[in-house]
Amino acid sequence: MRTVPRTIKHPDWAVTGIPKAEQRLSRTKIDILDAKGQDAMRKVCRLAREVLDITAAEIKPGVTTDYLDELCHKACVERESYPSPLNYNHFPKSLCTSVNEVVCHGIPDQRILLDGDIINLDISLYHGGYHADVNETYYVGDRAKADPDSVKVIETTRECLDKAIEIVKPGTPIREFGRVIEKHAKSRNLKVVATWGGHGINTEFHPPPWIPHYSKNKAVGVCKAGMTFTIEPILALGSSREIYWPDDWTNVTGDGKRTAQFEHTLLVTETGVEVLTARNENSPGGPVVLSTSTTDGTAEAA
Ligand code: MF3
Ligand code: CO
């Protein structure tokens, strides 16, 4: 495991591997942050965006996922931040790298990225006593040559997150996000992976609420100004059935088809939402235009 200087504040799992405080939380009480807490969230989320962009800029054929982990780790430490995944429930690295059929929580290793792969980078930071969480899926190599299925799953997932964010404001029931996401996924014949969800995020990494990404869910509660949470849908090209690798972290699709995921950390404001981990004009990645044969919901020619 990489080390973090002692001068940087560590979360409780850094030493034991167990998120004790998180496990003790009530499952229903959703925190409302005051102005000071909101500013702390703005700060850590800005740092998380910087770290994601620095790491993503190095995605190219020939680099290993462990090299990306090293970059992420160093960028966190330079920003006086602890990489939240490190030793969280014994996760061994500072970054999650999920390539092609890996659904999420891939562990960086010596795997070399190849032209035509897709990779999700999931970055979380702990700074000033607060966590940030952001992830994006990227094309490896020439994105103009990406295969149509990869473009379909990546761009539709990006749009699903955007559509869910559009309805965030005080009063929106938390169960609504899943409805919006699954409706759009279905319009392109894609499946929502139901196992994973969004979550509250603040002084804890995964406090309530749990946010399902599928429709007809029974999530309780409504958005209130001062709440901070993530939305992070995963869509699959084929079946959403997952299989675990023996490392107990990496989960892959049972049919080997690809998935994509996008995540932002959000703050509910009096009038709507602030996307705390928003991209800026220099952020690597970003949307690719979908072909019309993809947007009409039918399968495109091979
Ligand atoms: N960042 C992930 C999330 O979106 C959690 C990663 S925790 C780890 O909630 F241990 F898997 F790294
Ligand atoms: Co998250």
Automatic annotation (TrEMBL):
Catalytic reaction list: Release of N-terminal amino acids, preferentially methionine, from peptides and arylamides
EC number: 3.4.11.18
Keyword annotations from UniProtKB, A to Z: Aminopeptidase, Cytoplasm, Hydrolase, Metal-binding, Protease
Cofactor(s), by name: Co(2+); Zn(2+); Mn(2+); Fe(2+)
A GO MF term: metalloaminopeptidase activity
Any one Gene Ontology BP term: proteolysis
Keyword Membrane assigned: no
Residue stretches making up the Peptidase M24 domain: 40-270
Binding site for a divalent metal cation 1: D122, D133, E263
One cellular-component annotation, GO: cytosol
Positions of the UniProt region annotated as Disordered: 279-302
Binding-site positions, substrate: H105, H206
Compositional bias per record (Polar residues), positions renumbered to this chain: 290-302
Domain of life: Eukaryota
Cofactor note: Binds 2 divalent metal cations per subunit. Has a high-affinity and a low affinity metal-binding site. The true nature of the physiological cofactor is under debate. The enzyme is active with cobalt, zinc, manganese or divalent iron ions. Most likely, methionine aminopeptidases function as mononuclear Fe(2+)-metalloproteases under physiological conditions, and the catalytically relevant metal-binding site has been assigned to the histidine-containing high-affinity site.
Binding, a divalent metal cation 2: D133, H199, E232, E263
Keyword Protease on entry: yes
InterPro entries per record: Creatinase/aminopeptidase-like, Pept_M24, Pept_M24_MAP, Pept_M24A_MAP1
Gene3D superfamilies, alphabetized: Creatinase/methionine aminopeptidase superfamily
Catalytic EC class: hydrolase
Function: Cotranslationally removes the N-terminal methionine from nascent proteins. The N-terminal methionine is often cleaved when the second residue in the primary sequence is small and uncharged (Met-Ala-, Cys, Gly, Pro, Ser, Thr, or Val).
Family classification: Belongs to the peptidase M24A family. Methionine aminopeptidase type 1 subfamily.
Protein name as it appears in the record: Methionine aminopeptidase
Annotated source species: Aspergillus mulundensis
